[in-house]
């Protein structure tokens, strides 16, 4: 009798233990499920793809990669910059329209987001995307091969007038800002160049001009800076309203008597329909990155302009640029 009672007590104790273990596992699973659910709801919780629609080594590539390297620390996930060059940004912009509006695919843009629709290259423009953050601006500049002997814009213009069509001027692809700046400059300067457009942005023609394959190039000071430091290029003038802090000795077109100003602005864009709460998270991360002294110092050493604007401000800015570029394109 005592033995049977001990067996019953033992069985009951074992059952209690089993139920306790099962309940504990159930609670753990429930807890894990809850934490996993919370993690999946957090944005972002996986790497972000940032399309750069220009060549590696160009101005957009350099600045975007530097900014992204800081912003990813704010977001807590990697930002993978992927180059998709072609058509002065058109290839990358078109690709972005195919992506899900979930905040995990972004694209950097220049003012070509405005010009392509004006030229009929694309059916979309800046109003067909979510504008996240504006972070950089750069004026166009005229650079020449250092061995050609042109030391001032006046020297260069004089030679071009005496030899119409002889000077080869490299620039970005049709529709690109540097291409537009090149064609805008010719009537203002009263010259005719043999314009040699590249397949993408300013990186390729800068290398060609530095190597002597072409005589000159229209691009940004940032894109020319390394070749200027190497003694292979000379920047003769910039198409900005004021002299650049990083290049104080280089005159503007305006101070030399030529009324021309052409500037491109870089921004982060997302597919149309991306949730606004996610846009806000992205904006705050990129804004903090742009506010860092590290980023400001980088731009200063590269001769590039700093800015920090939200999507609403960029919409107004691009609307104004659209009007300006419309006038320039009518003169071409």
Automatic annotation (TrEMBL):
Show the SUPFAM superfamilies listed in the entry.
Periplasmic binding protein-like II
Q: Could you name the domain of life of the organism this protein comes from?
A: Bacteria
Transmembrane residue ranges = none
Name under which the protein is recorded: Tripartite tricarboxylate transporter substrate binding protein
The record's family statement is:
Belongs to the UPF0065 (bug) family.
Give the matching CDD domains: PBP2_Bug_TTT
InterPro entries recorded:
BUG (IPR005064), Bug_dom1 (IPR042100)
What the entry lists under Gene3D superfamilies is as follows: Bordetella uptake gene, domain 1, Periplasmic binding protein-like II
């Amino acid at each position: 009798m005592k033995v049977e009672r001990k067996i019953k007590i033992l069985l009951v104790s074992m059952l209690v233990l089993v139920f306790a273990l099962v309940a504990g596992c159930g609670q753990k699973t429930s807890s894990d499920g809850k934490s996993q659910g919370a993690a999946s709801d957090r944005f972002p919780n996986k790497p972000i793809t940032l399309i750069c629609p220009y060549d590696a080594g160009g101005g957009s590539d350099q600045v975007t990669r530097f900014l992204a390297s800081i912003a990813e620390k704010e977001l807590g996930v990697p930002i993978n910059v992927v180059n998709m060059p072609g058509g002065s940004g058109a290839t990358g912009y078109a690709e972005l329209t195919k992506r899900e509006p979930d905040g995990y695919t972004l694209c950097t843009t220049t003012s070509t987001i405005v010009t392509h629709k004006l030229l009929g290259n694309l059916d979309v423009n800046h109003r067909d995307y979510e504008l996240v953050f504006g972070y950089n601006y750069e004026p166009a500049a005229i650079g020449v091969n250092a061995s050609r002997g042109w030391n001032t814009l006046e020297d260069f213009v004089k030679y071009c007038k005496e030899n119409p069509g002889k000077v080869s001027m490299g620039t970005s692809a049709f529709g690109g800002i540097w291409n537009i700046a090149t064609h805008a400059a010719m009537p203002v300067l009263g010259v005719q160049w043999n314009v040699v457009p590249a397949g993408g942005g300013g990186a390729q023609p800068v290398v060609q001009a530095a190597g002597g394959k072409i005589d000159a190039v229209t691009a940004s000071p940032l894109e020319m800076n390394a070749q200027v430091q190497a003694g292979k290029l000379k920047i003769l003038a910039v198409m900005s309203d004021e002299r650049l802090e990083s290049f104080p000795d280089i005159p503007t077109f305006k101070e030399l008597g030529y009324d021309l100003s052409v500037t491109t602005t870089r921004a982060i864009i997302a597919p149309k329909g991306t949730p606004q709460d996610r846009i806000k998270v992205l904006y705050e991360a990129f804004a903090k990155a742009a506010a860092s002294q590290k980023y400001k110092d980088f731009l200063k050493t590269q001769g590039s302009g700093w800015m920090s604007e939200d999507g609403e401000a960029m919409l107004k800015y691009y609307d104004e640029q659209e009007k300006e570029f419309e006038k320039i394109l009518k003169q071409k």
